[in-house]
Specification:
Elements: H1 11-22, H2 26-38, E1 41-42, H3 43-49, H4 54-67, E2 70-75, E3 78-83, H5 85-104
Helix pairs in contact: 1-4, 3-4
Pfam family, one: HTH_5
Protein name: Metalloregulator ArsR/SmtB family transcription factor
Organism: Flavobacterium keumense
Length: about 110
């Protein structure tokens, strides 16, 4: 596998790329939408909402958590997941910058 050259980009650019990659799968979008709808849940509830096997859902949850888009707390034998506002605030700031540019810009 080739060198990614991530060291040639800013920390913010690398962080935004990780966040964007984490939401770049429809199953992860579905998980985020479900968490927004119910505010928190355990992994089993998410598995019941998606047409995926439990190990697959767990892998998607892991990716979202590693990117900082969700948080998980262990409660007994279950993990309760919720949205991590900090991660989404970073995405929000990025898209607000794009939106501000688009509002001002008259492009071809």
């Amino acid at each position: 596998m080739g060198i990614t050259k991530t060291e040639r980009f800013t920390a913010e650019q690398n962080e935004l790329a990780i966040l964007a990659k984490a939401i770049g799968h429809p199953a992860r979008i579905a998980i985020i939408e479900y968490l927004l709808k119910i505010d928190s849940c355990i992994c089993g509830d998410i598995v019941n909402e998606l047409p995926l096997a439990q190990p697959t859902v767990s892998q998607h949850l892991k990716e979202l958590k590693n990117a900082g888009l969700i948080k998980g707390n262990i409660e007994g034998t279950s993990i309760c997941y919720c949205i991590n506002e900090e991660g989404f605030n970073k995405l929000k700031g990025f898209f607000q910058n794009i939106n501000a540019y688009l509002i001002k810009k008259e492009c071809c």
